[in-house]
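Appendix B. Chain record.
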Amino acid sequence: MSEAAGVTYTKVDQSYFEKRGLRRYAGVWSLWALGVGAVISGHFSGWNFGLANGWGSMFVATVIISVMYLGLTFCLAELSPALPHTGGAYSFARTAMGPWGGFLTGLSENVEYVLTPAVIVFFIGSYMGSIVGTAPEMQPLWWIGFYILFVGLNIVGVELSFRVGLVVTLLALACLVAFWILSVGHLDFNRWAMNVGPGGVELPEGNGPFLPNGIAGVLAGLPFAVWLFLAIEQLPLAAEESVDPKRDMPKGILAGMFTLIISAFMILWLNASVAGVGSFKLGTSAEPLLDGLRALLGEGSNVAAVLALVAVLGLVASFHTIIFAKGRQIYSLSRAGYFPSGLSVTHGTRKTPHVAMVGGSLVALAVMFALWFGLGAENGGKIIGGVLLNMAVFGAMFSYFMQALSFILLRVKRPNMTRPYKSPFGILGAALTMIISVVTLYVQVTGDAAYRQGVVYVAVWFVLCILYFLFVGRHKLILSPEEEFALDKNASAH
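Structure tokens predicted for this chain:
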């Protein structure tokens, strides 16, 4: 046993890590697909709730959030090849701020990666129920079925995970491009995109104000604009499965970010501008892309149904890739002892963190069922997506703040640390990320009461986990690669 910074380390033999091995496979394109695939579902559902405050409000919110994510991704492009460990955000914060900083950052990211797939599978169920015609009461069966399928695919092996991720990501992007092309010639921006007035009322003739609710509307749109980029930051979690993380990580994460920026502004412009749809309708829709396709091709069109099935692939792409990230994130915290170490055991032959993926998925389903039955099936179905979305975004914003702070601290405390890539925006980019993430957190805490309730749930979970770490977890840490790097005073020369 050894002690450092108020924590106790337990030394383990080599067999501990042999039971927790991963396999290298990913190159640049696999990493690009992992990043884009994780986010792309946000271009199909979720972002559109911000349109309730008007198209202009959502546009400005998206510009602001784009700046935040650019700052974040350039930070990660520098940090991930410098600290190429599966821990990702936890690893960066652990090196910069010690065990407590690492734990709090890892905990917030864990909330994001456990709940984000739950949001996505909710939208998958909504799409599938609409396409197949199942009753709303059948929604939980869709959730369970998709979890079983895609956790199973991720357990089979890292090669299959990345191949499936690449294919479904390309198909999802193809679906979006098809929608862009189909919508040309059917757009009336002023009539439909601008049909929200002050107070969120519908303007039948459109031509409404750019910011119908002023700056308050922009602030209210920030959490939903996040959904257009949420989870791009998961790429560092694949560091120990990347063939050459020092070369490929910066390329993969930056290529993914610029792909998403183009797609985000295209869907924001086109989906709301299609005749017969509009910002007012999309502001409460659980299936905005499907609404757009129906307006373009007709309610009963077989082509619309086929394209809607392809649209589900966008949700599936994110669902699949974030389950991958969730497994690695829980695995890294568990391997280091922050979570119970049994969660980090990998499959004997597949070398995938199957225990972590199954455990995280069961927790997500438990949260979904608690909301579904706690609110009642009818009410739960109306707001569960928004509540879960805000819970996930709350965890993400705290994580972003801590990652950007870690970037700044490492620039100051370890200036000589080997950095294969350096962010051109440096400390300024990280500072902007911190400021915007704090503003978004503030909006969530002071915003809609129904969504604020979800944020309170996350805060309560934080308190319980902090108490666990204070009295139990910090005395059971293990010298994982992330911990050894953080403790090595000469690591800057490695």
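Further analysis of this model is presented in Appendix C.
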